[in-house]
Specification:
30% of the residues lie in helices and 27% in strands. The protein is an alpha+beta fold and 284 residues long. Bound molecules: 3-[O-phosphonopyridoxyl]--amino-benzoic acid (PXG).
Length: 284
């Protein structure tokens, strides 16, 4: 595996950043997780835009232009011979001192890793996921915006630890108002009586690229779409529930906190939207 670091390629064992990099010392940096289909990155422009917004949100100047970044991403896929895979793009604050002073970090590092996909097991798509609600609250946007896809994912990791302790692979996170926000690494949707419903950005979520794509597809197919506050009650009483993410695409959820959602089986709308989403990934 060849990893891109600021203009050069390194073998995995040689791909290193300084221990004085503030990405390592403080989680000071931003990232993107993308998916390539048939050698093409799905919604690359959206990912690039989100990365630049995340960087702006933490006052980090990305040292290369967006066009150069896109070229480097495609080249990293080529160099590694990956047509269908996962791409992790990272921009760290760069090497500094042990203090917090970000302005002493003069050389932000751009890292691109192209790898095989680590997907949820196929049977979970067939049977649906069981999730639990985390007691870890999704970080409040007034503290650190969840829109910033930062290198500090501890909030999500603490929730994911709760998932594994409960024997689940994903976990529902509520915001500080007690409303449904999202899962540790996926957005959440429910379907009930003709309406597709997902929490709006004000719930304090990362606005997923897959979430956006699914909303667009749903509107095109004539489904009613609602972005507004959601509670656990809405999930308990939904006909269908599913999660979206670059790695997961759409994955059905059939139980929340041991309570069966809908029929307890992946729903027809979920299956239809997954199929349409997969068709969309072939187009791009
Ligand atoms: N919410 C959060 C908090 C995320 O981190 C999503 C939603 C879905 O967004 P996209 O743009 O992918 O539709 C994410 C992104 C992984 C992994 O390895 C996934 C994410 C983040 C970090 C790692 O599966 N998900």
């Amino acid at each position: 595996m060849k990893i891109y670091i600021s203009g050069e390629y390194f073998e995995k064992s040689e791909a290193k950043v300084s221990v004085f990099d503030h990405g390592f010392l403080y989680g000071d940096g931003v990232f993107e997780g993308m998916r390539a289909y048939g050698g093409k990155v799905f919604r690359l422009h959206d990912h690039i835009e989100r990365l630049w917004e995340s960087a702006k949100g933490i006052a980090l100047d990305i040292p290369i232009a967006a066009a150069e970044m896109e070229k480097a991403i495609n080249e990293t896929l080529d160099v590694n011979g990956i047509k269908d895979g996962y791409i992790r793009l990272i921009v760290t604050r760069g090497e500094g001192t042990l203090g917090l002073d970000h302005y002493l970090c003069r050389d932000p590092q751009v890292i691109i890793i192209a790898d095989k996909l680590a997907l949820y097991p196929h049977e979970l798509y067939e049977n649906g996921l069981e999730i639990v609600t985390a007691s870890t609250i999704r970080i409040n946007p007034s503290m650190l915006s969840p829109q910033v896809k930062s290198m500090n994912y501890l909030n999500n990791i603490l929730a994911k630890i709760e998932a594994y302790k409960a024997g689940c692979v994903e976990v529902l996170m509520l915001n500080s108002r007690g409303e449904v926000a999202e899962c540790s690494g996926d957005n959440i949707f429910i379907y009930k009586r003709g309406v597709l419903h997902t929490p709006s950005p004000e719930a304090g979520i990362l606005e997923g690229i897959t979430r956006r794509a699914v909303l667009e597809i749903a509107i095109k197919t004539g489904l009613k779409v609602k972005e507004s506050p959601m509670t656990r009650h809405d999930i308990f009483t939904a006909d269908e529930c599913f999660l979206t993410g670059s790695a997961a695409e759409l994955i059905p959820v059939v139980k929340l906190d041991s309570r069966i959602i809908g029929t307890g089986k992946p729903g027809e709308i979920t299956k239809k939207l997954l199929k349409l989403f997969q068709e969309e990934t072939k187009k791009s």
